């Protein structure tokens, strides 16, 4: 049960980080950086990466967490 709660918290946090990162890509500063430098800022990139990781790990824990916590 505890792993499922942790998984859901990670899933929610991952969704928030991904939304923040994707919203940041639409700002004027990030658009100019993408045009001239060819990539987004490190902060935006980390928001997106950590958001995806949070979604994957949180989803896995919320689905498979109860099975991992059981003793054989």
What would your notes on this structure say?
This protein has about 70 residues and is mainly α. Helix content is about 85%, strand content about 0%. The chain is built from three helices and no strands. Helix 1 (about 1-25) packs antiparallel against helix 3. The longest helix is centred in the last third of the chain and has 28 residues, at about 40-70. The mean pLDDT is about 90.
Key terms for this structure?
single chain; 72 residues; mainly alpha; 0% strand; rod-shaped
Concise summary:
With 72 residues, the chain is an all-alpha fold.
Q: Report helical residue fraction.
A: over 70%
- CA-atom Rg in angstroms: 16 Å
Strand percentage: under 5%
What would the principal axes of the Cα set say about the shape? Answer: rod-shaped
The total beta strand count reads: 0
| pLDDT < 50 runs, ≥5 residues | none
Number of helices: 3
| Largest sheet entry | none
Structural class: mainly alpha
Order of helices and strands: HHH
Termini separation (Å)?
16 Å
Q: Output mean pLDDT.
A: 89
Chain-wise SSE layout:
Elements: H1 2-24, H2 28-37, H3 42-69
Helix pairs in contact: 1-3
């Amino acid at each position: 049960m505890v792993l499922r709660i942790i998984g859901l918290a990670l899933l929610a946090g991952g969704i928030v980080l991904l939304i923040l990162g994707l919203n940041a890509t639409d700002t004027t500063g990030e658009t100019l950086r993408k045009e001239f430098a060819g990539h987004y800022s490190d902060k935006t990139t980390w928001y997106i990466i950590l958001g995806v990781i949070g979604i994957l790990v949180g989803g896995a824990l919320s689905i498979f967490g109860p099975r991992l916590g059981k003793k054989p």
